[in-house]
Amino acid sequence: MISEQRIFQAYYTKSEPIVSYMVDLLDLDGTESIFEPCAGDGVFIDPILDKYQNIKIDAFELNENACDTLKSKYQDLENISIKQTDTLTDLDLEFLCSMGGKYDAVIANPPYGAWRNTIDRATLKKRFNGFYAKESYSLFLYRSIESLNEGGKLVFIIPDTYLNLNMHKDIRKYILSNTKIKEIALFPSSYFPGVNFGYANLSIIALEKSSDYKLNLENTFRIIKDYKSVEELGNEKIKHLTKLNIQQKNVLKNDGYIFLTNTNPSVSDCIRQAKTSIGEVCDCATGFYSGNDKDRLKVLSKEIRNSKRYDEVDKEKITYDCSSRPLDGIENEQIYVPIVKGGNVRYYKADNWFMEWSSDIVSFYKKDKKARYQNSSYYFRKGIAVPMVSSSSITGAIIENRLFDQSIVGIFPKKESLIHYFLAFFNSPTCNKLIRTINPSTNNSSNYIKRIPFIQPSIEQEDTITENIKQIIEQVKVSGDYEIELETENNKMIAELYGF
Ligand SMILES: C[S@@+](CC[C@H](N)C(=O)[O-])C[C@H]1O[C@@H](n2cnc3c(N)ncnc32)[C@H](O)[C@@H]1O
Predict the structure, then answer these.
(1) InterPro entries, per this entry (predicted)?
(2) Which of 14, 207, 383, 393 has the smallest count of CB within 10 Å of its CB?
């Protein structure tokens, strides 16, 4: 059963430093009309009332119980209006927004990743001009900005994924074009009592609605990060905080309007000014899924990590040499082919996993709804396997005459002679800095990989790196390890090429 807390995403802001920092950012004088779109138990309403008893606040809350509690809590206050409603579909609010908004200030901790069924999502997407509706916080943000009058202020606490993820491209453009951002504070989600997403950090964004597009482009805002504790929020004087001043028009110039928050300006500049990207010099594709790995995927031996659920492969039935690229499956008895799976291993992965690949089963994969026989033109080709998720640094391993699964982004250089260079690149700290600036989460999906800038190495650099990589691969094949000096030399050359 899904708990009420999960359904309503009712994680209340029980942190005094967060609440007071957010209220201070609104810079109220007591004359404002305020909107709280997901009021919970009123954590933001109380401190505002403490300062300005007569200030006008409209509070929305979907959960009936929470709403009843709010109503009785504020029953004696005429200036506080409580409405039980869904903020995202409330018709009065929608109307008010279509008329240009009326509030002077909005403050909220909206639900993140709120649970909604798919019909709901489709309706929402329509209602919000095609904005991505799976993650509802961006819809709360959009609706709340709309509800402000010209010059009205907004402060939200939300995950930081809207700054970089592809799916939030539209909301980025909307914010950059229709508001003046004041500041964005970035900090770990563990500062928020009871919540730790792991996948993302939290952010507090403060902005002002503005219809003057030209002025908005010229506006400079601050990104503040590297906090050491929650108490440091809002404390301007702390020396170790990183403060980046960024102009909105520069963010709008970035591919996908992403906010580049890397402190090293040469990394951000390199991404912004890149003439060529990985997507132009390599094909990037996600791999195969059988639809039922438990039955179709086999492991070489039970000693392999995470192999508990899988049966051992019959070694007599393996086709190791797939250079004939059997895209329609194998006719003879050797029906298992090597497959590269996720897991961060550098340079070369031993053949530990095998996929059932008889011609009958391959025709089944092609039709089955659960299976993904996708991007097959890349199967069994020479390329680089980059796991979709990297725990610490991005890694790459060579794929040759093998299948690769859907947890892998296969990278296939258009110029095959560059394959060893790219293998060094995808294991280098330089590449890691680039991808983590493009997308700070641990996700390396092909959309992000494609955006990494490509700088052509000189012939000498290419030759030295290629030789080093060939040696590394040979050493790994024989002993499972490699001489670190070879890698260090490669990394140094790549760092020189990119300037970091
Ligand atoms: C993350 S909690 C935050 C509550 C409070 N503002 C705070 O910071 O403690 C989100 C609140 O939004 C409410 N909520 C969820 N979906 C909503 C919706 N569609 N419309 C209005 N409120 C909603 C939940 O019931 C919950 O109380």
Answers:
(1) DNA_methylase_N6_adenine_CS, MethylTrfase_TaqI-like_dom, N4_N6_ade-DNA_methylase, SAM-dependent_MTases_sf
(2) 14
Any atom of ligand 1 within 6 Å of the Cβ of 60:
yes
State yes or no: pLDDT of 265 exceeds 90.
Answer: no
Q: Binning pLDDT at 50, 70 and 90, where does residue 198 land?
A: low
- Indicate the fold that domain 280-498 takes in CATH: Adenine-n6-DNA-methyltransferase TaqI; Chain A, domain 2 (3.90.220)
Kindly calculate the radius of gyration of the chain based on its CA atoms and give it in whole angstroms.
27
Q: How far is CA 116 from CA 123, 124, 125, 432, in A?
A: 11, 10, 12, 35
The amino acid that residue 371 corresponds to is A
Q: What is the pLDDT of residues 339-383, one digit of tens each?
A: 999 888 999 999 999 999 999 999 999 999 999 999 999 999 999
Cα gap 191→189, rounded to integer Å? 5
- Closest of 403, 351, 407, 359 to residue 378, by C-alpha: 403
| CA 114 / ligand 1 centre spacing (Å) | 9
**Distance (Å, rounded) from C-alpha 399 to C-alpha 90?**
52
Cα 140 from Cα 378, distance rounded (Å): 41
Of 305, 258, 317, the C-alpha closest to 437 is: 258
Domain 4-261 CATH class label: alpha beta
Looking at residue 149, its pLDDT comes to 97
Closest-CA residue to 289 (of 331, 337, 325, 339):
339
4-261 and 280-498 in the same fold: no
Query: Which stretch of DSSP H or E encloses residue 196?
Result: none
Q: Is the CB of 137 under 6 A from ligand 1?
A: no
The residues spanned by each domain of the chain are: 4-261, 280-498
What's residue 399's pLDDT? 95
Q: What is the pLDDT of residue 163?
A: 94
CB atoms within 10 A of CB 386: 27
Residue 22 contacts by C-beta under 8 Å, 6 or more apart in sequence?
13, 44, 107, 155, 157, 204
Helix (H, G, I), strand (E, B) or coil at 97: helix
Return mean pLDDT, the chain. 92
Q: Assess contact for 7 and 136: CB atoms under 8 A.
A: no
The answer to whether the CB of 43 is under 6 A from ligand 1 is: yes
CA dihedral angle for residue 20, residue 22, residue 23, residue 26, rounded to 10 degrees? 150
